[in-house]
Amino acid sequence: MAIIAQLSDIHLAAGRDGVVDDGSGPVRALRAAVSSLLSLPARPDAVVLTGDLTDGGLVGEYERLHALLSPLPMAVYPMPGNHDDRDVLRAVFKDHPAVAGSGGAPQAPVQYAVEVGDARLVCCDTTVLGEPHGAMDEEQLAWLDETLAAAPQTPTVVATHHPPYPIGIRFIDDMRFLDPAGFAAVLERHPQVVRVISGHVHRGSVGSVGGRVSTTCPSTYRQLFLDLTRPGRAAVTGEPAGFAVHLVTAEGVATTHFVPTGNYRPLMDVE
Questions:
Q1: Residue 30 domain-assigned (yes or no)
Q2: Containing domain of residue 202, as a range?
Q3: Which of 189, 210, 255, 261 could form a disulfide with 241 if both were Cys (CB 3.0 to 4.6 A apart)?
Q4: What is the pLDDT of residue 108?
C-alpha cells in the first residue's frame, strides 16, 4: 500500500521587506498541519503539495516554506499553483531531485513522476503564466500520455492544481481548468490511474474526470465559503483547515480521507 498525504493552498505571504512573519496565520496554520500529519498513527510515505504554496511567488516565501516543511521525514513533492513562480520554486527546492530536474527553459512546467510505495504519483502543471485559470497544452498532454504509458501496471495518482471538473462555486469556477477534455481523453487511455487529486478550491470535494474519481483538498489555511447560488459570493469561512490522505493498494484500490487540522485522540476504544 502507498499512503500519500496532500497539503494544498498554503499561501505563505511575505511582507514588503520580503520576510515571512512567523506569527502570521498561514505560518501558524502550516505548522499545525505538519504537526497533525506527524501525529497520524500511520505516517504517509510521501507528501504532495498541490499548489498555491506561496501568495506572491517570492524567494523569501519559498525559503520559509522549505524550512517549515523540514520536520517531515518523508519525501515532499511540491508543484505550482496560480500564485506560484515556477523558476523560484525550482531554485529553492533544488534539493528535491524531481522538482529540480523538471523543465529547463525559463518558466518551463514543473511536471514529474515518482514512485511512492506500491503506487506512482504523476504531478502535472496546470498553471498559466499571469492568469488565475488553469490549462494543459498539447505538449503537456503528450508528456502526460507518455509518462503514464511508461508504467501501465502501476496504480497511479495524477495531481494537478486546478480541478478538472466544475465545483459549483462561481468564484472558483471562474478560475477553472479550461477545456479539460484533452486531459480526460489521456486518462481514459490509461486504466492504471486510480485517482486524480487537485487543490485550488480551498475545501474538499469529489467529482470525476475521464471516468476517474477526482478530489480536491482542503486548504491548510482558509476554506472557501460553500455558496452554490448564482451569482454567489466570493468569501472565505471559519471552517477548520485540513488536508487529505490518499491510500492506494497494490491492487489499484484508492481511498481518500479528508482530515481536519488538529491533534484529535480517540475518545473511546471500539472492540
A1: yes
A2: 2-260
A3: 261
A4: 92
